[in-house]
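Dear colleague,

Following up on yesterday's call, I've attached the two folding results inline so they're easy to grep. Please treat them as preliminary; we haven't cross-checked anything against experimental data yet. The first protein's sequence and structure tokens come first.
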Amino acid sequence: MQFATPKFTSGKEVVEYAKKNGVIFYDFRFTDIKGMWHHVSYYVNSVDEDTFKGIPFDGSSIARWQPINASDMQLHPEISTAFLDPFTADKTLVMFCDVWDIYKKQYYEKCPRSIAKKALEFMNKSGIADTAYFGPENEFFVFDSLRVRDEINCQYYELDSNEGIWNTHSEIPGTNNTGKINFNSGHRPGTKGGYFPVAPIDSQVDLRAEFVKTLEAIGMETFVVHHEVAQAQGEIGVKFGTLIEAADNVQKLKYIVKMVAHKHGKTATFMPKPLFGDNGNGMHVHISLWKGGKNLFAGDKYQGLSDFAFNYVGGVLKYARACAAFTNASTNSYKRLIPGFEAPSILAYSAQNRSASCRIPFVSGEKAKRVEFRFPDSTANPYLAFASLLMAGMAGVAEKIDPGPAREEDLFELSLDEIREKGIRQMPHTLREAMEEMLAQREIFKQGDVFTENFLQTYQHYKFETEIWPWEGRPHPYEFLTTYSC
């Protein structure tokens, strides 16, 4: 079944489509500060053209948004984003929404999607470019189960997967299509052994195929799907789009992967580092800026890039430690950014060198010229992450920042002393460090009133109160191995 819809241009078109095609519910979705999707549904007969002018909701019930004495807000649906939800029992038409501040009569300063739009407006007004293309690559794990306990006397989690090397001795019920119980195939990718194996080592071929078919059915274009390096890990390549399109696609991708896995009795996560000792999940982001139909990143310099492109790279590398507050937005993010797991923590660029935080892909033709930033992960709110990378890159262009020479060596092999001697900067080591960098460099993000001071302070307080302080105050199981007998 196809779940894509026409690109609507008016509320009248939407209402007519819904009536002609048996739509039962409208589902209006928006994104909070953390990046989580929220929704409110309306029965089809209750919606007319005026509905799309503003849908009321309680802003005080969304974390760190409005106080209860000023809680009325509105959702403004973007009707061109409509698609049919593949999972609901009743036909449901979904739309992305921006949040409207009814008191200031403008888009809400804490709405991530609106912040991303303001970044694009700033880009256009500055004359730097008229289009920003983003191509995120989101990695994920699909596990069979997760158990977690967080008690005063117990900190515990346990993940399980048929592909897990820890299950070589286990009796696993219902894992082969003959219906044989207590079956163990013996075929597993092993730690760091999961890149491109065929079945039966790759046990998730059909599951990933269903991910792709569902994405295509709602109108998203994919181009590659495969098992990734870690056990139970996968990746789906989605075609690039404008900044807003790409961020919207991240939300749809995460929703569909989680829902299809859930339908099959499994659990999917985009968490950066769920497994100790194996590779983690990244969200590599490909970027190019265009103006007047011309790719501004194409040129005659190193690897066919332009001075403009290198200034952009210089800006992102200079401000990457501040961007990390948005691109690597969890305490878990920094367990991924360590040597030995293909996660670049060193702020350098190179051609094809995946140990650098910025890679220049080998591509043919001017239209395909782009750069890839490899440090982000999927705990990022995509709207905030992409907006921060755009603001940092534009600062590099405005300041004509030279990123220095390319680093061709394997940066993972450098010792800490060598990194210091060469003057190479690194990503933050903790979310606390990233938040401190963000506030120290916040004037970059505040240009054009894209990120307001109020939003940045709210974001900082939210992260400290919900993640940093709770994480710092909890004993870790490993500490009992190293410290209990002191």
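Below is the second protein, in the same order (sequence, then structure):
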Amino acid sequence: MLMSVVLLVEKERLVPNILVLRHSAGFEHSYLPDCEVVFKQLGIEHGWNVTTTHRLDKVTPESLAKLDLLVFATTGNLDFSAEQKTAIIDFVHVGKAFFGVHNATDTGYDWPQYGAMLGGWFDGHLWHQQVG
């Protein structure tokens, strides 16, 4: 009997829908192409529906309603409309998941609700790096 319950639970398991937004409105981190590949590979390995995009217009109240997880791999002040910003914050408030990859803390300095959702913003590295 236990085996049938386990099989039934597995059969009824919902497949999460994930949107990975990779958009740089500032510094373009070199790992970002790999980030997309990794999320797609994780989707294949775990049976997730993973979509990746660079386009901000793909984040809408309608698209968010179909998602379980929104991932930001972003930098800079993103040119979201007020409606999009509200939809993202509402998405989290209703219990949906948000995952900010590394540089997502370097996003939305002009969007106080985003900073509050994350708990703060990027304030520099602990080390100094020579570039160039």
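For the second protein, one point worth flagging: The chain is about 40% helix and 20% strand.

Best wishes,
A.L.
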